[in-house]
Fold this protein.
Amino acid sequence: MSARDLGRGPVVAIIGGGFSGAATAFHLARLLPAGAADIVVVEPREGLGYGLAYSTADPSHRINVPASRMTLISGQDSHFADWLEQTGAILDDAEAIAANGALYPQRRVFGRYVESYLQPFLFGKVIRHVRSAVASVELSGQGYILILADGRTLAADALVIAATHPPPALPSALRSVAAAARLVANPYDLGGLQAIGRDDQVLVVGTGLTSADIIATLDRNGHRSRIDALSRHGYRSRSHAVLPGDPIGDFISLPSRSATVMLRRIRATILERVLFNPVHILRL
Ligand SMILES: Cc1cc2nc3c(=O)[nH]c(=O)nc-3n(C[C@H](O)[C@H](O)[C@H](O)COP(=O)(O)OP(=O)(O)OC[C@H]3O[C@@H](n4cnc5c(N)ncnc54)[C@H](O)[C@@H]3O)c2cc1C
């Protein structure tokens, strides 16, 4: 299955069609001259642009960054918010508007936004969506052979890996209860959450944004009993500030060589600019 056989340009294979893979395909398609490359996204999900975060079918799962800060096009911060207005995608969703006026649409809506920009390229066959998972990759001369889970192979000249989040799995510390009938190991298994009775007591392991999703789903299902949540660090997922703040610090013009270095710089900036600054302390 090589596009070179079809007389097209070099094959760029992208593994994963979540936001990262879809955005890479979109920008390659719009920036490269027509026919310069055959862009192939290998993604088992039905649509491109959804990935783990934006494929949830639960309407109570919302984006956790305001719409005005999520965009497919760098430098056009309002691109998604403008799309929402132009398409009327949240006209019938009063809960999308937070008390501070920021927009938090259902997460699937963001996936639809990304997909809508890929669609013309998919129709024009500039981008191809191969619906499968990549099982392994082999080097082949200057290029690659992708072996797909369904047994097909794909020859590629360039490879982009955008598989990002692994599928949710049970942490090793909880393997002893793996066979328990009332354990929901995959937090996005909406059927499993649906099976929890309204009066069942629930223990959620973890208190990050995924736990917020789970609690929102239980709430929507009418759950009314006790929910305990366990956190290693004693934190809960926090709500957004009532007043939007301006971003602080510049972490881009002098790039960090690793994520750890960037994290140290971010922490140092917070200490210097926020915690040691009396004006900020007053605002906190
Ligand atoms: C629950 C949740 C909510 C989030 N909410 C927000 C938010 O509101 N705002 C925000 O800015 N960020 C949010 N994020 C962060 C979010 O992860 C990133 O914004 C972005 O969606 C990451 O996209 P991705 O394409 O890198 O990864 P993913 O979304 O993980 O996509 C990876 C894709 O690769 C595919 N894949 C994996 N393995 C293979 C394989 N072997 N072969 C082929 N395909 C494969 C998967 O099917 C998947 O579709 C959230 C994250 C999560 C988990």
Observations:
- The pocket of flavin-adenine dinucleotide is lined by residues 15-21, 42-45, 51-53, 63-65, 70, 133-134, 162-165, 209-210 (CB under 6 Å).
